[in-house]
Amino acid sequence: MGFRGEGALLADGAPVETPRDAARDAAHEELRKAVYHQHEPGVVERFVDWVQHQISRAVDGVSTPLGGGGNAALALLIVLALVLGFVLWRRYGAPRRAARATGKLFTGPEGPRSAAGHRADAAAHAAAGAWEDAVREQMRALVRALEERTVLAPRPGRTADEAAAEAGRALPDHARELASAARLFDDIAFGDRPADERAYRLLADLDQTLGRTRPVAVPAGGGTA
């Protein structure tokens, strides 16, 4: 750098005495130059690095103000983890799974399609390995088939959870399977769960099983026999 610290020597070996404060100020001035900061991370990255450093220090063991020992380390870890979680949430937003509450089963401007049409589309997507689309269409086929059999009353804007709850009252022996199918659909269509052949087959098999099941009479407002 452009300064000599305390204790430096001249070319002839004579010591140079630089005041400590002057040396510190010179170092700070040198480090403020842009060349030292052009590759520095952003504010969030620096904060995350700081949190990770504090966690490492806590793991090594902290002392007093919280009582020292493992309890203090644990408390500090919890606080830092919460802070880190908040920072990441502010940066990346809420998880996609939050969309589940408003995710409609049938979307788009087109009119109602038959269960057979949805099944055909699901099979085509499955043959192409497009498992997420296959799962969507197969779940729609399952619910549309229940509407065609009047187990469910046709209703625009229905969610998979709502369809499963209503159908489960008319098909009580399969209520749990319907609820699981709705959760699977939501997790794939509106959450972050990857779709695969197993998920598609599970819905296709349930669709076939329900087609062979006779509904029971339920009070007005639910499914009908």
Automatic annotation (TrEMBL):
Domain of life of the organism encoding this protein: Bacteria
Q: Name one Pfam family in it.
A: DUF4129
The UniProt record lists the Protein-glutamine gamma-glutamyltransferase-like C-terminal domain at 139-207
Q: Identify the keywords attached in UniProt to this record, alphabetized.
A: Membrane, Transmembrane, Transmembrane helix
Question: Which stretches are transmembrane?
Answer: 72-89
* Record protein name field: Protein-glutamine gamma-glutamyltransferase-like C-terminal domain-containing protein
